[in-house]
Amino acid sequence: MSQRAFGKLLGVSATAVQMWEKGVKVPDTENLAQIAARAGYTFEELLCCLEGKPVSEASDLSLILRQINHLPLSQVAQIVQPGAARLAAAAEALGDEAKAS
User: Fold this and answer.
1) d(CA 38, CA 5)
2) What is the pLDDT of residues 67-90, one digit of tens each?
């Protein structure tokens, strides 16, 4: 991705991105948080990486949720539909059990 495109995603100039890459300037907290989120990390995880500290291993669920947050909505819909169907089936099964008792 170009500096210009990356800057546009964050709402900053390509020059700002270039300065960050060269180490002349450091992104502010808000931009660091956006960079972390776009890379699939929490702000705290990014800070740990920048400070050379170990990053705690994320759970499988946390990794899945991160990936979902970065998917296009059309792909999120493909994930949600089977989940909703599964929840509806479980609710129906509970209703059937309640009627049987």
Assistant:
1) 13
2) 888 888 999 899 899 889 999 999
Q: What is the pTM of this model?
A: 0.52
Domain hosting 22: range is: 3-51
Residue ranges in the chain modelled with pLDDT below 70: 58-59
The closest of 66, 26, 22 to 12, measured between CA atoms, is 26
C-alpha–C-alpha distance, residues 72 and 94, integer Å: 33
Q: Which two tokens stand for residue 49?
A: 């990486």
> Tokens for 48?
């740990």
37 shares a domain with 9: yes
Reported as type and span, the H/E element at residue 70 is none
